[in-house]
């Protein structure tokens, strides 16, 4: 969503997740967000693309986070409670390398 002069609101892409964790904003204005089981990028023109598919969230108590680690890495973490012992969690972590647009890489 973008607020324009005069109070006009431009809607952004619809997310599937009603409570996504805090997004990461890159220097070029791109917003990276965990939207349910996917890592999504929303550019300055409000265009959206899926960058990666992660494990699906099966429990509403699942804890998810997204953070930058240095200048060139992005870390997504999903901690899901065990069914038999909700005080224990299984934690999955994905690390992505950030490259400038058109910069190639993996």
Description:
By secondary structure, this protein is mainly beta. The chain is 0% helix and 43% strand. The chain contains no helices and nine strands. The strands form three sheets. Strands 3-4-5-6 form a four-stranded antiparallel beta sheet, with no helix packed on it. A hairpin with a 7-residue loop joins strand 8 and strand 9 (89-97). The mean pLDDT is 87.
Please list the strands of the largest sheet in the order they lie side by side.
3-4-5-6
Give the SSE order as H and E letters: EEEEEEEEE
Distance between the termini: 30 Å
Number of helices: 0
Percent strand equals 35-45%
Radius of gyration: 16 Å
- The count of strands amounts to 9
Give the biggest beta sheet. Answer: 4 strands, antiparallel
Mean pLDDT comes to 87
Basic shape: globular
**Structural class determined from secondary elements:** mainly beta
> Percent of residues in helical segments?
under 10%
Which regions are unreliable across 5 or more consecutive residues at pLDDT < 50?
Answer: none
Q: Tell me the quaternary state.
A: single chain
Observed structural traits:
0% helix, 106 residues, 43% strand
Per-chain topology:
Blueprint: E1 2-3, E2 9-10, E3 24-25, E4 31-35, E5 38-42, E6 48-53, E7 63-68, E8 73-81, E9 89-97
Antiparallel strand pairs: 1-2, 3-4, 4-5, 5-6, 7-8, 8-9
Task: Please sum up the structure shown.
With 106 residues, the chain is mainly beta. It has strands at residues 2-3, 9-10, 24-25, 31-35, 38-42, 48-53, 63-68, 73-81, 89-97.
């Amino acid at each position: 969503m973008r607020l324009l002069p005069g109070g006009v609101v431009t809607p952004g892409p619809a997310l599937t997740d009603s409570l996504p964790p805090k997004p990461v904003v890159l220097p070029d204005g791109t917003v990276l967000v965990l939207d349910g089981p996917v890592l999504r990028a929303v550019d300055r023109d409000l265009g959206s693309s899926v960058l990666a598919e992660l494990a699906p969230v099966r429990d509403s108590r699942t804890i998810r986070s997204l953070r930058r680690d240095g200048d060139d890495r992005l870390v997504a973490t999903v901690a899901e409670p065990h069914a038999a012992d909700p005080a224990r969690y299984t934690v999955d972590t994905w690390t992505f390398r950030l490259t400038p647009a058109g910069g190639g890489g993996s």
